[in-house]
Amino acid sequence: MPYPYSKQMIALGLSLVMAMGVGTSAFAKGNDKFDNRSNNRFDNRSDNRFDSRNFFNGKKTTTQYKVNINFKDMQNGQGWDWALRYIADLASRNVFNGYEDGTFRPQATVTRIEAITAAIRLMGLESQAQSSSEMSASLNFADAKQVPSWAVGYVSVALKNDLFGENDNNVNPNQPADRLWATTLLVKALKLTSQAEAKMNQKLSFADANKIPAGSVGFVAVAVEQGLVNGFEDNTFRPNQSVTRAQIAALLDRAGDKLSDSEDGLLVGTVNSPVSGNVLTITTTSGQTANLALDPNAFIYRNNTRITASQLQTGDIIKSRTVNGSTIFVEVTQLSGGSTPTTTPITSYNGLLSGTLSSVVNGYTVTLTSGNQTYSLPLNSSALIYRYGTNVGASSLQAGDIINLRAYNNTVVFIDVTQPYGAGTQPNYEASFTGKLASPVSNNVMVLNTGSETKTFAYNTGAFIYRNGVQVNASSLQAGDSITVYTVNNTIAVAEVTANASGPVTTATNGSDIIVNATLASTVNGNTVTIQNGSSTQSYPLQANAFIYRSGALTNAASLLAGDAVVLHVKDNIVWSVEAATVSGQLTVTSGSGTIASAISNNVLVLNNNGQTTTYTVDANAVIYRNGVQTNLSTLQAGDIVVVRSYANNVLYIEVTQASSSNNTSAYTINGTLSGVNLNNQGVLSTVSVTQTNSDGTISTNVYNVSPSVTINGSLVVGHSVVLVNVNSLITSITIN
To answer: Mapping DSSP to helix (H, G, I), strand (E, B) and coil, where does residue 565 land?
Structure first.
């Protein structure tokens, strides 16, 4: 019989009450409370109170506590099914649970004190943390008074177990935990500090590796090697990004499997017979027969799917966790017949990926596991592959090899085996460098100016070189190109141009509206602007009333000179504004965006962007577009979302990118990257946050209201590309790529 709950509902009804001595789902003790908001700040309101008689009383009693997987804010296809397996396992260990109001708040950020508490529990040190001696410890931190009374023991034990650094003067208990801090904490909890210290000079291959402090590099390197963390699809680590409760559940579960205490309460064995009368009979690894009394709502996980007890098969190898005689968690680690559980592999990926090869390369397909996810990616027939620092063929790769790979256009072009199967830690042959090309490539040699030094590289004749997203040969590279190179033994395997050296750089904004950064090829002739485009030229007509600035002053077209560095605003292939400076000059026309906060009066425009208010004066001759039609200032309305371009806060151009709800009756799409979701008090999706590229090329995060009847295609995973459909200022459809 199929499992009655659909994936869309994610109604995984593990809601059981067990007799247990210690622990609470929200880490609170005594009279401390958490409020119901996602930022988990302390609050004194009466909802969600945690009674010291029932939670964390510091004694081994028969106090009841609830483990709930049927979280009301993780239903209705909200996209959190990927996290439930981690959450269920952690809940069965009493490490990390939900809240008393029936929510888990997966998108809520985790505070540092919550993360510390979970780490101590994971290390099996909770009893020590709750002892009277630790609970009454006098902490020497500058902000010791901010540490909740129930958490003093946890901080004391964390300090004794080197989870704090020597220079940490503050606990910062209510500060959100970011990815770098949480990663470092878990590496320390795994007692891998010495390994991290040995890797402090390792070159990280993340695109934003320069944002990771030198003293933290080793911790990130170890965490990646251990499979605790990985980069995002754009090859960034994002060290300062706050960690959500769903994300840290995955981190804690991965780390917990590597601790010696991870087997506490764990029983491993082979299923002897079909489940009967809610009793699961297994043969343990020691050869004994064990009868496990399954809780009616036990979480049972097989082949990447939650199942019922009747779907377990004789011969399945399982691990289970039992509390006070009731088995609450079962996971099949090997299917009957000897095969390992399968996951639906990810078949498209771009950027850096680290993991372990699951099998030898078969038919130009690379299969690897990274964390708990399987990837099956096509291998370019000319891909560069390195093992022991030597260029080899795909047939030299072995199952179990730990690798770094790079993929472009969803195809693997580079693989470096960082630790061959069965071998110990290897020298670090791989590195990456970013800088500007000092001269054209000659004799297979590339010279790169990194800012601090000039470096010379040989490049492999089979190297993959990308410019403007297209694979090119080395002769297409130009002196001055900003470029990132990935090397093995100082030989370039992959090179990617991140910014062109010459020719106009255009940024699409909205339809035919573009910004062009270029060099004037000649003076303006007959109201025609001609710019240099590599070895050729490109011409645009100049609008009769165009705004022209030169060296910071409003001027006319006659003042523009050949060789000027210019920024053109082009609409419908006509130049509406030009700002010029010498090559060493400073361009000062700026762009902004936001929502018109109030009716425009006396040519004053007030914009609100993510809570920040900016006031502009609109030039009497400003160019204004609304609904794709050039119009005047009086047609703009409060609530319109606009893009503006200004000089010294004097607006020269306004374009309405989204009309206010009173006039917005047509649907349009919004593209970007999902950065967050928010649920209302009923656990229903109410808003989504999307990171988008603005009309001026800058990046911003915008919040959109969601229709109660929204259609969601895919799982809402932060960091994934998303397409929204907006109708009357409400999101009616969300598609996640």
So the answer is: strand
- Asked if residue 717 and residue 613 are part of one domain, the reply reads no
232 and 145: one domain?
A: yes
Mean pLDDT of 71-98: 67
Do 115 and 186 belong together in one domain? yes
Q: Round to whole Å and give the CA distance between 68 and 498.
A: 47
Domain boundary among 372, 387, 419: 419
423-470 pLDDT tens trace = 766 777 788 888 888 877 888 888 888 777 888 888 888 888 887 666
Is residue 22's pLDDT more than 70? Answer: no
Measured torsion, CA atoms of residues 477, 478, 482, 487, in degrees rounded to the nearest 10: 40
* 67-71, 649-653, 682-686: segment of lowest average pLDDT: 67-71
Report yes or no: 23 and 331 within 8 Å, Cβ to Cβ. Answer: no
The structure's pTM equals 0.42
Dihedral class, residue 561 (left if φ above 0, else alpha if ψ from -120 to 50, else beta): beta
Query: Residue 492 falls within a domain, yes or no?
Result: yes
Mean pLDDT of 318-337: 84
Neighbouring-strand partners of residue 270: 283, 317
The whole domain housing 172 covers 107-257
In the listed set 231, 257, 283, which residue is the last one of a domain according to the structure?
Answer: 257
Sign of the Cα torsion 391, 396, 402, 407 reads: positive
Domain total in the chain: 6
- The pLDDT confidence band at residue 80, using thresholds 50, 70 and 90, is low
Cα–Cα distance measured from residue 341 to residue 344, given in angstroms and rounded to the nearest whole number? 10
Q: How far is CA 88 from CA 93, 152, 249, 286, 331, in A?
A: 9, 27, 9, 26, 10
Helix/strand/coil for 588? coil
How far is it, in rounded angstroms, from Cα 291 to Cα 316? 15
3-state DSSP assignment of residue 210: helix
Q: Would 284 be classed as within a structural domain?
A: no
Whether residue 456 sits in one domain with residue 371:
no
Q: What angle do CA 412, 463, 489 make, to 5 degrees?
A: 100
Four-CA torsion 206, 210, 216, 220, nearest 10 degrees: 0
Query: Which CATH number fits the domain that encloses residue 547?
Result: 2.40.50
| Phi, psi (deg, nearest 5) at residue 130 | -95, 0
Q: Which of 241, 243, 240, 203 is nearest to 224 (CA)?
A: 203
Nearest C-alpha neighbor of 646 from the set 607, 610, 690: 607
In a domain, 456, yes or no: yes
**CB contact at 8 A, 694 and 591:** yes
Pull the structure tokens for residue 44.
């004194």
Rounded Cα distance, 638 and 605, in Å? 10
Tens-place pLDDT, residues 682-727: 778 888 888 876 544 457 777 888 888 888 888 888 888 888 877 7
Same domain (yes/no): 449, 566? no
Percent of the chain with pLDDT over 90: 15
Phi then psi for residue 354, to 5 deg, are: -115, 145
Cα–Cα distance between 241 and 679 in angstroms, integer? 20
